[in-house]
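Kindly inspect this one:
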Amino acid sequence: MHILSSKIWFPPIEEALEDGLLAIGGDLSTERLILAYQKGIFPWFDGETPLWWSPDPRFVLFPEQLVISKSMHQIIKKNLFEYKTNTSFSEVIKQCKHQPRIGQDGTWITEAVEFAYNELHQKGIALSAEAWHNNELVGGLYGIKMGRLFFGESMFSKVSNASKFAFIKLVNQLKLEGIVLIDCQVYTPHLESLGAIMISRTDFKKYLEEYG
């Protein structure tokens, strides 16, 4: 495992430990974050210290393989939620920060993370997908769009199915925009039910090189 300093660089992702941990330290400057995503690396914090990860295998979703359940089809048909993008990015990340997580005492979204991704949003790199109900933001997610790839970061839901609705709508939007792969980072049953699968780090790297 590598210790990062103020210099903007990352070791080859093949040098990651078995659990995917590649490096520790550094900062969350826009330049470093962009380089990280270009190389297939994402930050995940332990306290205030940045940890940089590139797991193998990688959990991804190909937009054309999106699975929409019968119950979600009914929810979409009933227009229970209104879909918007980028109208409340800062609120989406704030809600993700405070979303309770099963098996977790706190959140990896520190104030530094919140500030850094808001900066990326202002530069047009980070975006939010939002579910609204009665003029209230009730669910959503945010991530990074780079080339023909989208890197999902975190989601939240105040009411049942709101984040799933926003995710489905976003995937369909990204498909129309020519996105070929959505990075889900690590396995969750929630995203598996929507069609996400595991691919090797080697294959993931090929997508980065061709479409990033």
